[in-house]
Amino acid sequence: MINILSSITSTQNGMLGDVASVPKCIDKSCQRVIWRKRASVPITEDQVRGIFLRYDTNKDGLLSKEELKNAFASLGSRMPGVRAWLALQHADVNGDGFINEAEFDKLVKYTLKRGYKIN
What we know:
- The protein is mainly α.
- The protein is 50% helix and 12% strand.
- It has two domains: 2-35; 41-118, Recoverin, domain 1 (Orthogonal Bundle).
- It starts with a helix and ends with a strand.
């Protein structure tokens, strides 16, 4: 029975990636999992530009609210719809509901100020 549990535990640990197993003090055959936190690195301006360009799905050179929502979701925003709306409020100078090339730099700077990070 112990051999079966140890093989299952070692298989699970192999699939989890960034985990370390530490034996408990009481029973050396039991293992507990300790998650290691990965280092987060602030996202760069070029990376933000690339993400927004990638989410211009219809390639019209304009970012709609839905495209912004998808881009912010990929950045890890907790509420991408709200963030997209706020980005439009901040960067959409002409009020047409889209971010064009002239407004793109303002959108990128707004996004960088939010402090998104890459894990």
